[in-house]
TrEMBL record:
PANTHER family (UniProt xref): 7-CYANO-7-DEAZAGUANINE SYNTHASE
Protein name: 7-cyano-7-deazaguanine synthase
Species classification: Bacteria, Pseudomonadati, Campylobacterota, Epsilonproteobacteria, Campylobacterales
E.C. number: 6.3.4.20
Pathway: Purine metabolism; 7-cyano-7-deazaguanine biosynthesis
Listed Pfam families: QueC
Catalytic activity: 7-carboxy-7-carbaguanine + NH4(+) + 2 ATP = 7-cyano-7-carbaguanine + 2 AMP + 2 diphosphate + 2 H(+)
Family statement: Belongs to the QueC family.
Residues bound to ATP: 14-24
Cofactor needs: Zn(2+)
Cofactor note: Binds 1 zinc ion per subunit.
Function, in words: Catalyzes the ATP-dependent conversion of 7-carboxy-7-deazaguanine (CDG) to 7-cyano-7-deazaguanine (preQ(0)).
Keyword entries, A-Z: ATP-binding, Ligase, Metal-binding, Nucleotide-binding, Queuosine biosynthesis, Zinc
Species assigned in the record: Helicobacter gastrofelis
UniProt: Zn(2+) binding residues: 197, 212, 215, 218
Amino acid sequence: MLEKIYHASCVLCFSGGQDSTTLALWAKKAFKQTHLLAFNYAQKHAIELKQAQKIAKLLDLPLKILDLHFLQEITLSALFASNPQSSNAPHPKNPNLPASFVPDRNALFFTLAHAYAFNLGADFVLVGVSQEDYSGYFDCRKEFIDSLQTSLNLGAFGTPEGISFLAPFMAMGKAQEFALAQDLGGLELILEHTHTCYEGVRGVRHAYGYGCGACPSCKLRQDAYKEFLRDYK
């Protein structure tokens, strides 16, 4: 992980899921100020926003939620509540992508986080993406993050330098994230309060947390928890 940056502040793209909550646990210790930014884009698993609010209170971190319902009007994804398509299917516009892919979602989220950071005078935007566990989403890769950072800084500051994007989990898998959460004293917070299930199922707690157990996100998290217990616990 990165060295502690006590003098700096950051805006953290926050969903209430495993990745962003683990990142928030670390950021709370690493930064002087951490501002959480979440997005309501009419997602099928909107329960994640309720969990995000609970987690923000538990961590005593400020949280702002932006309304992006318009996104469902201009693009397709199985993640939208209005779309009955299974998240296990291929995307209708690109069979090489999963149906859960939301075109330009990360570009929009990260752009808004950059604007928020600019307004707050924050030094960094933190994102919990990983190209090791990126589920086929091309906008979770390092080259995308680096390119977007350059473009947004050119637009806001006139140079490639300005607000830095940090993706500390880029080369990590979710099993390593479980281990990091344990090291930070937040493993039970991750298991009990975070939500990653695409179907929004939160009725029964499994060993790895809550979820339907069948969607791609649940399968990834379940496998990662087994790996964590085997290799890191």
